[in-house]
Design brief:
single chain, alpha+beta, 4-stranded antiparallel β-sheet, 11 helices
Length: about 300
Amino acid sequence: MNMTSNVLKKQVARYTQITLGALIVCLGFNLFIIPAHLLTGGLSGVALIIYYLTGLPVGMQNIVYNLPILYLAYRVFGRLYAWDTIVGTVVLSLILDATHFMVSWNITQDGMLNAIFGGVMAGIGFGIIFRANANTGGLDVVGAVAKKFYSLDIGTCIFVMNFVIVMASAWMFNIDEALYTLVSIYVTAELTNRVAAGLNREKSIFIVSPAAQQICQDIMENVHRGVTYLEGKGGFAREHKDILFIVVRLTQVSRVKAIVDHYDSQAFMIVSDTSEVSGKGFTLECESYQDARAKWLEEQERQREIASGQF
């Protein structure tokens, strides 16, 4: 019963996240993109072209245009993927039409500001939806199908289809709006990737040094991060090498560099971006280095007593 309750809570939280993301996307559309006569990528861009020409509701069009996409998602990827696509598409479309009255607010008349802020809000919203393992249909599904059957890159497929939409915008309206649309699509894509990958980006560090033991001890004591030893071998002389691997927050990188430089100014070190870090010390609580070492020493003493027959 408790397990069922936990699953239900997770699903409620997930669909709440999808709804929140859809709301932010729709605010970006109705407050900035549509008032500036801009387009977006995907089928929503097609819906916006028809809206500008005929006045048909964008959300209603989005649902209609996605019907064959939803069927394709079901046939190719299965029921679960199709259900998530349906939820994302329907929620987005309904909120889009429900908040359409905001179009008349005309917050700013500057095309570039509309493109940037519309792209930012849409990117954040789509990123939140993707983090909930859902999507809003459209060209994302088409790109996924193209990758599955034709080994084509999803990003390339979506870019080509979006490029056609932007060219249609330039031909039907004017070049300024088409260029602003490109800015909006780029900002949306960047923010979507960043939010979907996680804003809590950390740094992963590899250290190769003969002083690995001293460096490891100092990092654990003073930076309070766990360190992992990796066994390595040099490619030229085939000598044994100790490699340290550590994940730290951005603010701790300089302290790690200072420690490494103190023990070995010639150490080989790689610092790279890392996202979606989980586990003890990041998403889970962990005990301090001092407490962990005290427990380890107690266990070592206990093992020695057992071995000597004193326990």
